Structure formats: structure tokens, C-alpha cells
Amino acid sequence: MLVSEIIQKAIIPLSPDSVLENVFEEDYPDSMGYIPVVENGLFIGFLSIENLDLEKEMNKIVGQCGLEKVNEFVSPGQHIFEILATFHKSGLNMLPVLGEDSMYEGYLILENVINLVSQTLAFQSEGGILVIAVSVNDYSLSEISRLVESNQAKILSVIVESDPYSPQRLFVHLKINEKDLSRIVATLERFEYQVIEVHQTTNTISLDKERLDMLMKYLGI
Fold first, then answer.
1. Which CATH number goes with the domain that contains 34?
2. Residue 68, pLDDT score
3. Least confident of 59-73, 113-127, 168-182, 206-220
4. Is the pTM of this model over 0.70?
5. How far apart are CA 173 and CA 164, in angstroms?
6. What angle, 0 to 180 degrees and rounded to 10, lies between the N-to-C axes of helices 182-190 and 141-149?
7. Both 97 and 73 in a single domain?
8. 3-class secondary-structure state, position 33
9. Given this model, what pLDDT does residue 204 score?
10. Nearest 5°: CA angle at 113, between 6 and 107?
11. Which of 8, 34, 84, 119 is most buried by a 10 A CB count?
């Protein structure tokens, strides 16, 4: 699933010469916090709607307003999973899509991307979630998969994050197509994997509340 397949173009970009009075004759969605500004095909920033004092600035042109400069952008050829990290790094809920020679091609809104990801098979399928800790040097997805599959189960999706307190440690989030994960947990622990969290239908076990709180904060981008 590439950015080129989900790129959005419904909001027509502004030029620096656009007059604000004319800009807001358009019916922008309530969720639209920014409007792209483009000059000669090149993206130069976002006009932040919430930062405008419309009563005082209606006669201004867009170029006279303080535009939101954006250091992060996405490319049409990027995979959808890659761009979630870019959104997180930027701190914005909207990013420009730039093609060759930095030419503006459209934009993406974070909420739409998350909704799309949540509709994938891995998120829709029933099952449980395991979070395991492993050192960077010992991480092997093929080995973890082998241990999971030895219990007649399948890994549906994987998210790997670095431990912010220990750069040599990874947290591996596994979505598995089984509701009861007890046998899989026992197998992983037998091979000295540290199981941090277990989320399953029968019950939910939080082995490390601090880690769970941190994950929820991270996913709240």
C-alpha cells in the first residue's frame, strides 16, 4: 500500500498571492487545520487556520501570514507504514506529498491514514497481542515466527520499537491469530524471551504497566 494510492487532492493549494477574504469563501472541513501553500509547483508551507485572526487579517494575502514551515514530507513511492513514523516526527496531523524535484503532488491527513491502516486484515482479524523484549543483537523475526508457528499459530502483523531507556533493547508487538496465547507465551519464555504484555480474549495480563502507558502515549501520536 503506497502513498501514491491514498494521496489526497480535494483541498486546492493556495498561492502566496491569495487574499484571505477569498480563501475563506471556500467550505473547508472542520478537521482541516492547515491549507497547503504552493508557488510555481513547489510546496512552501502550510497556512495554519487556527492561528489566523480573521477579523484583523482578512485583507492580507497568504504570503504576508506566518506560514508553518514543514521539514518533513512524504513521497509517492513510500509505504504507508513508513509514513506513520514521519507523522510522529513532524508533530503535525497533515503532511505534503512531494514528488521529483520537490514538486507538490497532494497531501495526507493522519486521521485518514490511521483509519485506513485499521481496516487492514491484521487489525480486523480476531486474535491476541503479545509484546516481548529482546536485545537488538538477538532479534530474529524468523526465529520468533518459528516458535509461534510451532504452536499452530500465525503472526498477522509486527510492530518493532526501540526502548527509549535502552538503545540496545527492542519491544516487539505481535498480533497473533489465536485468542488463547498461554502456550505461545510458555514456548517463548522457554527460549528466554521476556514477555512484557499479553492481551487475549480470556483475560488481559499487564506485566509492566509503565510500558503499557508508554505505548498508549506513543500510539496517540
1. 3.10.580.10
2. 83
3. 206-220
4. no
5. 15
6. 130
7. yes
8. coil
9. 43
10. 55
11. 34
